[in-house]
Amino acid sequence: MDWINIALPKGRLGEKAYAMLKNSGYPCPAIEDPGRKLIFENPEKMVRYFWVKPSDVAIYVERGAADLGIVGKDILLEYEPEVYELLDLKMGKCRMAVAGKKDFRDPVGKTLKVATKFPNITRNYYAGKCRDIDIIHLNGSIELAPILGLSHVIVDIVETGTTLRENNLAVHEEIVPISARLIANVASYQFKDAQMGAIRESLQKQVESND
Ligand code: PRP
Predict the structure, then answer these.
(1) Integer Cα distance of 4 and 45 in angstroms
(2) Which atom of ligand 1 is nearest to the CA of 139?
(3) How far apart (Å, rounded) are the C-alpha atoms in residues 81 and 122?
(4) Using CB atoms within 10 A as the burial measure, which of 4, 104, 114, 200 is most buried?
(5) 68 alpha carbon to ligand 1 midpoint, in Å?
């Protein structure tokens, strides 16, 4: 047996992801009391977990530092990494949407200013509509942009809708539904296929039983 390295996204999604792995028979008690440690091992199951920034999971997997990873579909659409997408975990559900002030109307004939953390998704979406845009790339608190007149609209994740509501903004267009995915490094999936396939199967059973 080989060690299977698994990159988990730090935060709420990562906690849900670890819970699914634990229930699939791949627990690692140390991870539940982490302190500042970043790597956790279960020698019996030969799995090694590590926490990374959610937007970095795909990089670890693409470059082979992790064999498997759990990542939001938003990150896969934004960075288009060369990885295998093995399974839709059907959790961490939200949507990518265009939002703006409640009374927003598209200024036809003018370039649309769009603030976002997701420039690639934004570019692809508006290219599909042949709409001329100016992307303003921000790193957080995107909702401020239309309020302060920095942009006409935003392209961002909407989960509960609370952030938009509390800032008097509304969804104007839905781009794509998002959920967490199990991804694999292309090379590892060839030579560690038995172990990685077993992890995929146990997770799939859980996805089906949650349905
Ligand atoms: C995300 C997203 C929205 C918010 C949506 O931000 O960018 O701001 O969550 O969630 P809601 O619909 O449940 O309110 P995040 O918490 O990642 O922080 P950020 O502003 O730093 O990007």
Answers:
(1) 9
(2) 22
(3) 17
(4) 114
(5) 26
Spacing, Cα 162 to ligand 1 middle (Å): 9
Positions in the chain short of pLDDT 70: 34
Question: For the whole model, what pTM was predicted?
Answer: 0.94
Of 130, 126, 207, 122, the C-alpha closest to 157 is: 122
Question: Which residues touch 104 (CB under 8 Å, ≥6 apart)?
Answer: 146, 152, 153, 170, 172
- Beta strands 4-9 and 47-52 are parallel
The runs of H, that is alpha helices, within 117-192 are 119-128, 144-147, 162-166, 186-191
**What is the per-residue pLDDT for 105?**
94
Residue 185 pLDDT: 98
Ligand 1 binding pocket, CB closer than 6 Å: 140-143, 156-163
